[in-house]
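Re: the 250-residue chain
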Amino acid sequence: MVPWLGHDDPFPAVERALGAASGAPGLLAASSDLLPSRLLDAYRRGIFPWYSDGQPVLWWSPDPRMILRPDEFKVSPSLRKTLKRVLRDDAWEIRVDDDFRAVMRACAQAPRHGQRGTWITADVIDAYSSLHRAGEAHSIETWFDGERVGGLYGVSLGRMFFGESMFAALTDASKIALAALVAHLRRHGVELIDCQQNTSHLASLGGREIARRAFVAHVRATVNDASIPWRFDKSVLADLVRRQPVDPAA
C-alpha cells in the first residue's frame, strides 16, 4: 500500500516504491501538500511529484531512471546547422530566468502525445516559483525576434540538474534551449541531468536509463556541492558546436 504522508512525515525509502508489476511502477507516496520544503527534500532523495488536478500529490521514484549526461548529448546534422544559425543571427537569443512562471505556463499548455490535460497546475507553478525565488529553480528560454518561442525549466541543487518540462512554439526551439543548458552544465562540471521518465524524444537526444540505486547515489554525492552560476547567453552554444561530434544516426 502506498503510504499517506502527513505534514511532518518523512518520505519512505525509495526502495519501497511500487515495482514494475504494479499498475504504477515507481509510485512511492501520496500527500495533500506541495510545500517548497518538501519539494527540496524530495529532490535530494531522488523523488519527484507527478499528478493530475483533483488528485492528491503523488510522489515517484522509478527504477530505472531516465537521465541525460551532458557529455552524451546527441547533436544531429540538422540540429548542428540550427545551432550555427542561432549563433550568427542576432534575432535569436537565449535568456535565463527572464520569466520563470511564463515558461511554466507555456509548458503546461504544450500538447503531449497520449496525454490529456497537464500536471503543471496552478499549485505546482506556485511551488516551483517559490524554489525559483530562492535560486533553486531556473528557466532557459529560446527567443526569436523578441518573442519567447521555446524553453525548459528545472531544479538546480549543487552540481545536479533535475529537468522538469519543455515547450516549443517553433521547430527545434526547445532543443536549442536544451543544447544551451547542456553546454552550460558541461562548463561547470555537472555530469547528469535527471529526465525522470523514458521518452523516445529524450532517447533521441542521448538520454538513457540507469538503475535507481546509481541515480540516487549520484544525487546524494552532488546536491550538496557549491551551486553553479546561472547567467549565460547563446554564446555558450559555441562550445557545443565546436566540440560535440555530430551524430549521423540522430
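The mean pLDDT is 94.
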